[in-house]
């Protein structure tokens, strides 16, 4: 057959593409389980980190099972929703539906000395892509016990600073509610938060859009949990 | 002709020195800047490029007499792109942390000029055996530069190698500080520049008129 004919080229390309598609689909199926296990372990590691438990990804599963024996799902009225595995809830889908239809997971941390903490996820938009994280909240349902954030593609050195230790440390001890029990969320303050500000932390210099995005994400996601956090407060 | 004949061995050794893809042909610079702030990702990147380049060379070489010349670039791209996706999937399954660090750069192996360059210049005109060696050779030539750059950057930028802290705490207490500039991409360009300089000083024939 003439190698320069159109028919030859078209046939060649078609056969090649079908073969390649088959191979890639096969490999993807083969490795899917392993890849998912990695993603799950990473999520467990983040949840543990929010509760100030540092761990490696290999040990995350064991420690997660140990500390987080209790998980549940609530709606934005703070009422429990049964029959759903909290760990399987994907926040990137939940933020797309109406607030009253959202399934909001709560991971309850039972520390030997630290006591009970509620870990909740946040998910929103940064500058270039999604940002997400977990906040651990004290048993009084207002004081932040620990926080961890991550991002898909924020600018290194600027917006990406939200994933660093110094930034996350600031959240410890901040309050979601003021003295009168009004919802305040946590705000990233440009130019630096005053030390007396119970509801603010320093924003990232040079990362204005990311900082605004995180403030907004915290306000919306913690806002969804407002009723849950207000319910049966144990001071 | 034996696979390890003198001619074939040149396919491996030439890209290490006189035909180095980075310092002489100045190809693949983008990833050389991006993945060399630590040794481990640089090493994994080298292995990934090696796998893609060697197999792409072999596959294109096997197909060289059947590829319609008018769509040959597309055929090469499909071969390279599928291999890259395979590598990416394997990394995600077995070395997840490294794959996160390399992030988009594994995908960008597709656009690494070294690969298309070798396919066009060598694999289309040679048998699979030599094409395989050419792929390995060029990946090694690319890799050793990457790793040298990464060693310098990680040692001076983070005080460690392969993640192990080498500079003792007492140094830091005495006032030593890691050089933050080493971590930033421009530093890779400086180090590559220094390697090019050293290489051309030692081998005068490489200096262009």
UniProtKB/TrEMBL annotation, chain A:
GO terms for biological process: sodium ion transport. Keywords: Cell inner membrane, Cell membrane, Flavoprotein, FMN, Ion transport, Membrane, NAD, Phosphoprotein, Sodium, Sodium transport, Translocase, Transmembrane, Transmembrane helix, Transport, Ubiquinone. Pfam families: FMN_bind. The modification FMN phosphoryl threonine is found at residue 208. Signal peptide: none annotated. Belongs to the NqrC family. Composed of six subunits; NqrA, NqrB, NqrC, NqrD, NqrE and NqrF. PANTHER family: NA(+)-TRANSLOCATING NADH-QUINONE REDUCTASE SUBUNIT C (PTHR37838). This is Na(+)-translocating NADH-quinone reductase subunit C. The lineage of its organism: Bacteria, Pseudomonadati, Bacteroidota, Bacteroidia, Bacteroidales.
Automatic annotation (TrEMBL), chain B:
Its EC number is 7.2.1.1. InterPro entries: NqrD, NqrDE/RnfAE. It is a multi-pass membrane protein. It is an enzyme of class 7 (translocase). One of its GO terms (biological process) is sodium ion transport. Its main location: membrane. Belongs to the NqrDE/RnfAE family. Composed of six subunits; NqrA, NqrB, NqrC, NqrD, NqrE and NqrF. PANTHER family: ELECTRON TRANSPORT COMPLEX PROTEIN RNFE, NA(+)-TRANSLOCATING NADH-QUINONE REDUCTASE SUBUNIT D. NQR complex catalyzes the reduction of ubiquinone-1 to ubiquinol by two successive reactions, coupled with the transport of Na(+) ions from the cytoplasm to the periplasm. NqrA to NqrE are probably involved in the second step, the conversion of ubisemiquinone to ubiquinol. NCBIfam families: nqrD, PRK09292.1. This is Na(+)-translocating NADH-quinone reductase subunit D. It comes from Balneicella halophila. The gene is nqrD.
């Amino acid at each position: 057959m003439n190698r320069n004919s159109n028919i030859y080229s078209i046939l060649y390309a078609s056969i090649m593409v079908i073969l390649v598609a088959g191979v890639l689909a096969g490999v993807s199926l083969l490795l899917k389980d392993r890849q998912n296990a990695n993603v799950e372990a990473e999520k467990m590691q983040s949840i543990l980190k929010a509760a100030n438990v540092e761990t490696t990804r290999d040990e995350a599963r064991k420690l997660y099972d140990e500390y987080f024996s209790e998980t549940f799902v609530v709606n934005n009225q703070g009422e429990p929703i049964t029959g759903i595995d909290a760990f399987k809830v994907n926040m990137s889908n939940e933020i797309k539906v109406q607030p009253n239809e959202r399934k909001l997971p709560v991971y309850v941390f039972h520390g030997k000395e630290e006591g009970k903490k509620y870990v909740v996820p946040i998910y929103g938009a940064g500058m270039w892509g999604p940002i997400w994280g977990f906040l651990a909240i004290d048993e009084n349902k207002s004081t932040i016990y620990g926080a961890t954030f991550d991002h898909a593609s924020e600018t290194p050195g600027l917006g990406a600073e939200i994933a660093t230790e110094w930034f996350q440390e600031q959240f410890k001890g901040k309050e979601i509610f003021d003295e009168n029990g009004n919802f305040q969320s946590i705000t990233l303050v440009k130019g630096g938060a005053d030390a007396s500000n119970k509801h603010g932390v320093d924003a990232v210099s040079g990362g204005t859009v990311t900082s605004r995005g995180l403030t907004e994400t915290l306000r919306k996601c913690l806002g969804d949990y407002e009723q849950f956090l207000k319910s049966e407060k144990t001071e | 002709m034996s696979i390890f004949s003198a001619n074939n061995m040149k396919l491996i050794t030439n890209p290490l020195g006189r035909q180095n893809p980075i310092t002489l042909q100045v190809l693949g610079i983008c990833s050389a800047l991006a993945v060399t702030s630590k040794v481990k990702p640089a090493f994994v990147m080298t292995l990934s490029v090696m796998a893609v380049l060697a197999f792409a060379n072999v596959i294109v070489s096997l197909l060289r007499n059947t590829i319609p010349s008018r769509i040959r670039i597309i055929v090469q791209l499909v071969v390279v792109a599928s291999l890259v996706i395979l590598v990416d999937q394997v990394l995600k399954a077995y070395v997840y942390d490294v794959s996160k660090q390399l992030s988009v750069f594994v995908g960008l192996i597709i656009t690494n000029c070294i690969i298309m360059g070798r396919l066009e210049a060598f694999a289309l005109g040679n048998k699979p055996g030599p094409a395989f060696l050419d792929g390995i050779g060029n990946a090694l030539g690319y890799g050793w530069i990457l790793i040298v750059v990464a060693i310098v950057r990680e040692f001076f930028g983070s005080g460690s190698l392969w993640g192990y802290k080498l500079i003792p705490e007492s140094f830091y207490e005495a006032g030593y500080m890691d050089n933050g500039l080493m971590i930033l991409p421009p530093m890779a360009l400086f180090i590559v520049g220094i390697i090019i300089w050293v290489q051309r000083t030692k081998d005068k024939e490489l200096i262009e008129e």
